[in-house]
Inverse folding.
């Protein structure tokens, strides 16, 4: 497919930082082969994350000047409240400093130790927040999510049968809430159908369990529904979003994604008593409920972002960038997750590097090699993030997939730049036999992927 041209023109530019392979080799070693430890200026094209890395529009920048910095009851909060009601149909919400703060607040109020929270797939911070609350986070993706070659249109769906079994088998009160992550980041930014959202709601309601959406990429999810779901094909995106949220008893949201802002989050709940408890609790950690750890100008940026993100031209171009990269890579024989997800391109590291055993972190090895050869920063989403030693048997449990995510920041890189990245990956694939595995030499106890350090197993080959 010919990529759609950028639906914007560029008013301000920021330099890129080219580097030599020799420089990158030194920087990589100093960073312990963990790309989170690099300085941003050591990166040429930064596809580490699409979170908070987007470009704001001229309208968002202009709204910053209208930020009302009053401690309580700022006008900016009320403008945001109107938008949240218009877009999501929620009147009870608080702003937070980012998505994980919404998770911590919600679970702090609703989740008790030893309880179980099911989700299509928990994002790493969601899982970590639940585990810190002493609860058990259970992932129930559909089987197709494990097959990177399956073209299932809604690979992000939750497995309804397994959810029903979990609810049947657990004692009443043990599941305080169920979640759906839209889109399902950990399985490749894959969408969840409206049918699946509705079925999940109906099933949870049967067991008196509320449904919460992790709505970070609600607009991309709506775009896929608009393009792929027969009953909703070509329906207005606004209507799709309102319908999806009509099934929700609450939502967490990182405005750093589909809020088109560089910082911020939201937490919405319908239950009055839960809402009151959240407001009490947040004063200790986030701030007063009308600013939630943000400046008034941040609230304005989010409100404006939420009015722009459902523009079909934006979503067609954004998802189109991922689709063209996947087509280019697939055409070159590179094992890439299909169909293309909403916010990035996911390389299948196990198929890319079949000779590297799981204990040697093929995803981390691939991400490090890609940086070394091209200066492109990506992110391992696999065993470094999710593998765990079984407490009883001591055996290592690996996740279903080892992916390397090339997350596409919103409105930042052009089609030409992304085509160049895909070319670099295809070249690396041709030399894949030179890539060696990694050993983890420093392992922090929580969210280890952010700060773990590695060493290549055969140092002589990465040179
Ligand atoms: C699906 C999902 N949930 C939650 C979060 C956490 O959001 P934040 O980074 O704003 O804390 C992320 C961030 O990447 C995410 O992708």
């Amino acid at each position: 497919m010919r990529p759609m041209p950028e639906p914007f023109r560029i008013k301000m530019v920021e330099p890129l930082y080219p580097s030599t392979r020799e420089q990158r080799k030194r920087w990589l070693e100093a960073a312990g082969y963990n790309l989170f430890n690099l300085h941003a200026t050591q990166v040429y094209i930064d596809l580490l994350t699409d979170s908070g890395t987007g470009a704001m529009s001229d309208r968002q920048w202009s709204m910053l000047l209208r930020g009302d910095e009053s401690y309580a009851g700022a006008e900016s909060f009320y403008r945001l409240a109107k938008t949240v009601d218009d877009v999501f149909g929620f009147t009870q919400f608080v702003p937070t400093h980012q998505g994980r703060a919404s998770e911590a607040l919600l679970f702090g109020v609703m989740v008790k130790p030893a309880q179980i929270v099911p989700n299509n797939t928990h994002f790493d911070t969601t899982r970590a927040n639940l585990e810190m609350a002493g609860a058990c986070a259970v992932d129930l993706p559909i089987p197709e999510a494990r097959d990177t070659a399956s073209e299932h249109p809604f690979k992000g769906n939750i497995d309804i049968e397994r959810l029903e079994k979990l609810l049947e088998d657990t004692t009443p009160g043990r599941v305080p809430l169920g979640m759906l992550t839209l889109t399902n980041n950990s399985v490749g930014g894959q969408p969840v159908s409206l049918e699946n959202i509705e079925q999940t709601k109906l099933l949870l309601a049967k067991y008196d369990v509320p449904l919460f959406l992790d709505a970070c990429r609600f607009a991309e999810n709506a775009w896929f529904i608009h393009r792929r779901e027969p009953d909703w094909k070509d329906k207005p995106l606004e209507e799709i979003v309102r319908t999806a949220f009509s099934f929700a008893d609450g939502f967490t949201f990182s405005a750093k994604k589909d809020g088109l802002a560089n910082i911020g989050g939201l937490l919405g709940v319908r239950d009055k008593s839960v809402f009151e408890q959240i407001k009490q609790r947040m004063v200790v950690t986030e701030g007063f409920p009308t600013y939630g750890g943000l400046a008034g100008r941040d609230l304005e940026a989010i409100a404006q972002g939420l009015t722009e993100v459902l523009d079909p031209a934006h979503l067609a171009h954004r998802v189109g960038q991922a689709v063209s990269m996947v087509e280019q890579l697939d055409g070159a024989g590179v094992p890439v997750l299909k169909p293309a997800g909403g916010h990035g391109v996911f390389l299948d590291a196990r198929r890319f590097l079949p000779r590297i055993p799981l204990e040697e972190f093929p995803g981390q090895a691939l991400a490090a090699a890609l940086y070394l050869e091209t200066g492109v920063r990506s992110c391992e989403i696999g065993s470094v993030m999710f593998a765990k030693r079984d407490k009883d048997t001591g055996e290592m449990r690996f996740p279903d997939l080892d992916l390397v995510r090339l997350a596409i920041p919103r409105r930042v890189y052009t089609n030409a730049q992304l085509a160049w990245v895909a070319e670099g990956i295809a070249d690396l694939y041709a030399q894949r036999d030179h890539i060696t595995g990694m050993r983890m030499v420093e392992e922090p106890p929580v969210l280890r992927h952010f700060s773990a350090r590695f060493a290549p197993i055969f140092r002589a080959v990465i040179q």
